[in-house]
């Protein structure tokens, strides 16, 4: 789940809708896909830009915590796999920025908002990756949580977003498996490796639960987004599903989920579990996570240091265009 | 230097048998043991790919445009993949029971055989691109020649790598041209990068005893034989990029020992400290 706390625009009852809005809502209710050049309410467009933009930003900022270990990967094969994975994240960013562009916002505009702090990325990427086991935990838990949200988004109402999600989900499920594979290797390894794996689970468990966003009772923007099928499930539904899926996986690894109150609830057919500390979540969102400054700083630096490169390419394109025009005139 | 036995002749079996007898234990297959020059050559190939791949991978998440992030990760992946093949073969030929990972992660700097050029720090994006271009233009000629190697394993790896490197060269040459013939600033940066790196290009074409042995055995070309083609490629691209190579420049690793002999810059030690950290801190652990 790479979009959290996405503010949704305007929520209207059917009686207050214009005929155009009613027709639009009916198309969504019939599960028709909305395509870029078709009419859409301004609120739908704006909400989607926020959500897709935040998702795209999460992909590119998300390269950093894992990129942190590429040069230290313990074997050539692990290095190649991690490189391929981080490259996929950049590719996801690219699809998503392209999907956002179909809504009339350029990649540069979105990046400017990221760099100035006016758009967010997922809170999870503000946590540090301290050991190699974190590469396992990030794949297993963070990509696992992302998949929970993204699989339903393949059916989202906006065509380009839905199609981007279909491609992304295929790759994300590989990512999750490679993360789990690292965890299996660590848990079957030396006592130090197993301890590293447990420590990674301890540190990433609650931040992963936070990825789904605040509890439904505190989530004010969900209803309109769900009516528009921009959001497909509530935060709590997805969080429950994630816990139910992940706990047996932790048991298989021989690891302990860091929640003394975790227990199976026969009646609801799911686990009861402790809520994350939401004050920590809001602190991280507000910029006070352990790595907010480094992550955003790295993105801003990459952008600023690369200005001459982008300008140079534009200057060449202008020159080449000018030369082509001159040659055409000479030929005429 | 007498020519080396052809890898494909039946005396392989005799060699392997001798190696087994010498090694004192039978678990390790050693079909090509006794051929240190071949191992040396394969390490040079693998180490160039490993160290350049490492440098390129340092950009991951920090490139000036998303497309560049994707392209650089791809290139690093190609190089790490090539390194696995070259070092894997080096370990096999060496026959001491090591594998590609042992060679990558458990040798110290003095045992690395990569060119100095590929271990130089990334600098700005211009230095990274220029380093890539100067190496790609050499790498492609080397791989083309290796496709005709008398050793079919070498020829197979070269055929696979050549396809990847042809693309690396297309990309790096294109960007050198665009940025050289770009804005005032991009041109100045590319010229500075060229001037800085030029002193590390001579080492690519130095022939030594190992190269002589490989050439005599028909396994690999003499590096000096690749220079005319490299000169043509580089001259054409620099001309279009409106850049000029320094007329006179000291060449590191030509009259003095360089990376091919295991005498490196200070930078390689830091690369290895980072790259080998987990293998060194947790000896024997499996990942």
Automatic annotation (TrEMBL), chain A:
Its EC number is 1.14.13.149. It comes from the Bacteria. One of its GO terms (molecular function) is phenylacetyl-CoA 1,2-epoxidase activity. Coiled coil: none annotated. Keywords: Oxidoreductase. It holds the Pfam family PaaA_PaaC. Gene3D superfamilies: 1.20.1260.10. Signal peptide: none annotated. This is 1,2-phenylacetyl-CoA epoxidase subunit A. It comes from Paracoccus aerius. The gene is paaA.
Automatic annotation (TrEMBL), chain B:
SUPFAM superfamilies: Ferritin-like. It comes from the Bacteria. InterPro entries: Aromatic_CoA_ox/epox, Ferritin-like, Ferritin-like_SF, PaaA_PaaC, PaaC. PANTHER family: 1,2-PHENYLACETYL-COA EPOXIDASE, SUBUNIT C, PHENYLACETIC ACID DEGRADATION PROTEIN PAA. This is Phenylacetate-CoA oxygenase subunit PaaC. It comes from Paracoccus aerius. The gene is paaC.
